[in-house]
## 1
Amino acid sequence: MTLVARYSMAYKLQCDSCDLERECTDWADANRDARDHEAEYSDHWVTIHELQRA
Ligand SMILES: [Zn+2]
């Protein structure tokens, strides 16, 4: 099992155009949420930040 390594990383979504801010523990989830938001608001740009957790 390598799940521990996966969950030591987190991803923070931040939208440049509104106050959207969300944390995901999964890269695929973070990407999907960012895509969904940009699809819903076509003039918004979502940045995904990697958060290093101790
Ligand atoms: Zn937005």
Note: Residues 27-40 form the longest helix (14 residues).
## 2
Amino acid sequence: MNAWCALGFLWLAFFCHGALSCPALCKCYSRRAEVVCNEVPLTEYPSEGLPKNTTMLTIQFTNITSITEEHLKATPLLQGLHLYSNHLQHLSSNLLRGVQHLDTLDLTGNKLTELPADVFSHALLRSLVLKNNLIEKTDADWLLDNSSLTWLDLSGNHLRKFPTALLQKMPHLENLDLSNNRLETISANSLQPLAKLERLNLQDNKLDSLDASMLQSTRNLTHLFLSRNKLSKIPQNLFQELSQVRILSLDDNQLSHIPPGSLDQLSSLDEEGLDLSANPWLCDGKVEYLWRWIQKNKKKIFLPETIICASPESLSSRSVMSLTGSELNLQS
Ligand SMILES: *[C@@H]1O[C@H](CO)[C@@H](O)[C@H](O)[C@H]1NC(C)=O
Ligand SMILES: *[C@@H]1O[C@H](CO)[C@@H](O)[C@H](O)[C@H]1NC(C)=O
Ligand SMILES: *[C@@H]1O[C@H](CO)[C@@H](O)[C@H](O)[C@H]1NC(C)=O
Ligand SMILES: *[C@@H]1O[C@H](CO)[C@@H](O)[C@H](O)[C@H]1NC(C)=O
């Protein structure tokens, strides 16, 4: 409440609840219907005083701990809600019932652990960012069927189980980021409903194997990130349907071989689009496929000289690319 309003003149009442209204500690930009509360000592969501026509609201670096359906009802035209780096621990069920036009919800950097049923139902959300929270498990009942989401970011949480049931509700998803979690396995048909998926980020998890049919339905994938897992094998047909892939990262895993033929479908790779570095390649006779593929596709590999033999001892530290035909034959 600003000083003008405190005067309490009747003729000012209009301004206090209309054009000039703005929550204490926040900045209101009325022409673009935007409100920003940045790094201020708020401990509660500032419903009071928010202009009713607010479409864009940013509350960041404050101490608010919860948000409810009632809070959001104050701004029924809201389209973008950015709640970066607060102390949010609780979101109410049916949170979005009063903000049906909400398109983007960003909850990055809070302290969310569990979320209630229908927390993201009701609005036609396209982008949901839950990055860097403390979420251990996802639930299919967060959303209704046929969710409009095209962008889901759950990176930097504590997920151990792949969110298979939740993803069944997202046939329109184009971008899925699950990097930096604790995922160990992905069941064969987890990605089956995601025919529109273009980017899949699974790096920095604990995946040690992948099912051969896992990527069968995601034919529009252009970016696939699998760096820094524990993969020791790639199924031969894993990339079979991925003719659109431009970037594929497999670096920092435990790969010793690539099955013959497994890279053949990757005809759309960008220059330097494939990263195979920091794996313990076994340079026996079975490395021949990789060796030939590198000779033919050198430009498509990111730092090809960093694809290095870990064994046998006689070739250790040599780059696969530098091996001669006779060295390969000698080892076979
Ligand atoms: C929002 O409402 C305020 C006050 O009623 C008005 O001054 C402002 O122009 C409106 N903004 C938009 C973008 O409609
Ligand atoms: C949040 O609370 C902590 C202590 O409770 C305080 O030190 C900090 O300044 C507060 N942050 C803001 C932005 O008010
Ligand atoms: C699913 O949602 C899309 C848009 O979000 C809509 O066009 C389509 O009709 C819906 N399908 C069903 C079966 O409800
Ligand atoms: C895949 O991409 C193509 C070209 O961008 C597009 O026409 C097609 O509809 C996409 N397929 C799906 C299932 O979204």
Note: Residues 248 and 267 are 12 Å apart (CA to CA).
## 3
Amino acid sequence: MPRQPHAQSPSTPFHRPQRRPTPQVWPLAAALVLGASPLAAQDPIDYPEGYRGWAHVKTLTLHAGHVLADPFEGIHHVYANPPAVTGTQGGEFADGSVLVFDLLAAVSEGEATAEGKRKLLAVMVKHRGRYPATGGWGFEAWAGDSRSERLVTDGGASCFDCHTSQAQSDYVFSRWRD
Ligand code: HEC
């Protein structure tokens, strides 16, 4: 594997005290929590069938009490399809790149923490021509294990709003590690 060409961020991506999530983020959070499911306004994005066989980029656990715990408390696994792997390694995210954010409940038992139920599955699909308003990325999310209950209602605007902090890496937080 190519070595990671850029420096690791010094803190977790969620720890950004210099920039609090903007108020527009919270309606999204509420929608995720309530499981709202109106139709997406943008080009429909396909459920990323088979993503569990893709490359695992990273895992992060977000604990209760974090400013984003509602709705992001739990275990985060990030997966990338082959073109997206190149992007997480510092290359270009070519059209067709797909990234998956798999959010699972964290279940603590004794001194161990295990994966619980899936809370939601979020994806970003790169297609410059199709999603010019959101950095060339299409954003979508599905509630729990559902493949039909879509959560994004604003064409991805509120997802993109938070991801803009990562403009220097094409709006993607996760970096490849050796
Ligand atoms: C409040 C900020 C915030 C909002 C809102 C947000 N994200 Fe993210 N997203 C993150 C962070 C931080 C990560 C890094 C993952 C981790 O560390 O767990 C991430 C990671 C991702 C990833 C994996 C690729 C990457 O950038 O690392 C996808 C896919 C993703 N988010 C999709 C979405 C979708 C779809 C929405 C809207 C439904 C959304 N996100 C809304 C902060 C946000």
Note: The chain has one domain: 25-36+53-169.
